[in-house]
Each structure stands twice: as C-alpha cells, then as structure tokens.
Inverse folding.
C-alpha cells in the first residue's frame, strides 16, 4: 500500500476514540500514552476520552459499580458509533491481523470507532448489549493503565503496518 494514499484517505474515513473509566495517574504511563497518541494522530484522528471514576464506591457492590459506570459509558457514546469492548473474553489478534481488522473497519465504519476500557469489574450487561465486538489484548490480566498504553501502542503499530512504515518487523 502506498503511504500517500493511506494518509490522505484514512483521515477522511473515520475517527478512533479510546473511551476509558478513570484517569491515568502514573507519570510514566501518561508520558508513554501521550507519545503513542501523538504518533497515531499522524495517521488518523484519534482521541482518548476519560469518564470520571465513581466516588464513594465502598458502599457499592461490584454489580452496582458496573451499572453506574455503564450508564456513564453509554452516555458518552454517539449515534452511529461502532463500539468495541476491550475485554478478556474478546477475540485475540496478532499485530498484523489487528492492522488488517482496523483497515476493514476504515471501509465500513462511517463515523467513529470507539474502543472501551471499563472499570475494575468489567462492563454492565447494557454496555455488552451496545457493543458490536469484543477484543482481547492478552489472556493475561494487566492494570487498566497498562492496557491503555498497550492499546495505543498497538493502534500506532497497526497504522505503521498499513502505511508500510519501518516500525513493525516481521
């Protein structure tokens, strides 16, 4: 694929949003996430949208917390969004497979492709119902802050694979 074609056409096709619950607090993650976010924006519109963490969660059960977070996630979605949950039970890809998957989405998603990282207990049934797909970044469990970094790095890697850049070696 020619890089010029890729850069011109991908920006007009869709926007990618990473929707997360709670802000990133570790400085090293903040720095790395910002770096990969900026790199990714050279290829397509990309943003990270933060839903504030719930307050006073000690009085809430895990199910109640999922429900309240789910309400906030659903409010952040827009009509026409293609919603993909980052979920341990989702489909796993190799990096080149993920790049091909993203490329297919570029041709089928009209407006916004939204990836969602939930809170510590996962997603409410309503959020699962609103999602079109689930992806897993690993069978291992990572902190929510690490998953943010892993995702933005993999999205950047996918963009460089599609553009024929030197970042990914295979």
């Amino acid at each position: 694929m020619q890089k010029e074609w890729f850069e011109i056409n991908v920006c007009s096709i869709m926007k990618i949003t990473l929707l997360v619950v709670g802000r990133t607090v570790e400085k090293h993650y903040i720095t790395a996430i910002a770096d990969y976010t900026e790199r990714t924006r050279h290829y397509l519109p990309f943003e990270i949208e933060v839903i504030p963490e719930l307050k006073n969660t000690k009085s809430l059960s895990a199910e109640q917390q999922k429900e309240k977070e789910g309400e906030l996630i659903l409010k952040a979605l827009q009509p026409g969004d293609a919603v993909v949950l980052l979920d341990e039970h989702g489909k796993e890809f190799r990096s080149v497979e993920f790049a091909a998957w993203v490329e297919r989405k570029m041709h089928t998603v009209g407006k916004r492709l939204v990836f969602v990282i939930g809170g510590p207990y996962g997603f409410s049934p309503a959020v699962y119902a609103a999602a079109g797909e689930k992806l897993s970044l690993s069978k291992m469990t990572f902190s929510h802050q690490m998953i943010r970094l892993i995702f933005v790095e993999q999205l950047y890697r996918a963009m460089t694979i599609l553009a024929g850049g030197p970042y990914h070696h295979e």
